[in-house]
Write a structure and sequence with these properties.
alpha+beta; 60s Ribosomal Protein L30, Chain: A; CofE-like fold; 3-stranded antiparallel β-sheet; ligase; Coenzyme F420-0:L-glutamate ligase; F420-0_gamma-glut_ligase-dom; coenzyme F420-0:L-glutamate ligase activity
Length: 252
Amino acid sequence: MRVREPLTTAVGDVGSHVASQLLESGVMPRPRTVLVISSKYVAIAQGRRYGPEGTIAMEDAVRIAGAAGQQPEFVELALRESLVFLGHALGIIITARREGVTPNSSIDRSNAPGGVAVLPPARPFQTADEIRWKLEGLAGGPVGVVIADSRVLPLRRGTVGVAVAYSGIEGVVDERGAPDIFGRRLRHTYRAIADEVASAAEIVMGESGEMTPMALVEGLEDRIDGASHRPDETYVSPSECLYFRAFAEAGG
């Protein structure tokens, strides 16, 4: 769904704002469809904008900023928004958040109003619930909501979509124990349904000047569960992560 002009200011109620934008565009969600919405759009709607004024950089941020060639106040915010600081490269601060490893803790200056940076959404799973409740009134039935951001994958060029949060849709499906086509039982496989939906929607939402912060995805009727979800459904600690464990064991 294209918008006429970029969102630059906070709104009082994100769910009501999203519903009004859909009504204005004439794109109405039908029961058992999934709305994918840009995390940056949600964050701007929440007023999550950053300017260097009013932020005091602590000692760790000043030290890291000096090594990375970054603004200390920006690094301070990146550290505040992270679970774990992992390092820096090419002037980018690498951290871990609930949605995975992130550059600059998902703080982004691209497509940001007024030259400021935009912080990641606050309370993303709760916000996904609030958007879903409004949309279900429009649709007259259950819908799913995915708040999506983009990420780069190790050793891969380009970005893919990832679900920052979701509501009303099965985000992760445990397929351990299910047989493969030759009857062998899967031992470790989970399917990241919400991430797959986010990545599919980003084909049309884009990364630059598309002005398309939302997309409706159909054909996922069997994945709509009408339920609220939690961040711990998707997050695994570094000790549980395949890549982190491999790096730790190789270094040990």
